[in-house]
Amino acid sequence: MGSSQRLASLVQRLRLYKPEEEEDDGGDTVGPAVPSSSAATPRPDGFSPRRAAVLVCLFEDDDSQLRVILTKRSSTLSTHSGEVSLPGGKAEAGDADDKETALREAKEEIGLDPSLVTVVAVLEPFLSKHLLRVAPVIAVLSDKKAFTPVVNIAEVETVFDAPLEMFLKDENRRSEEREWMGNKFTVHFFDFEAGNQKFLIWGLTASILIRAASAVYEQRPSFPEEKPKIKIPPSTTADCYLP
Question: How many domains does the chain have?
Answer without folding.
Answer: 1
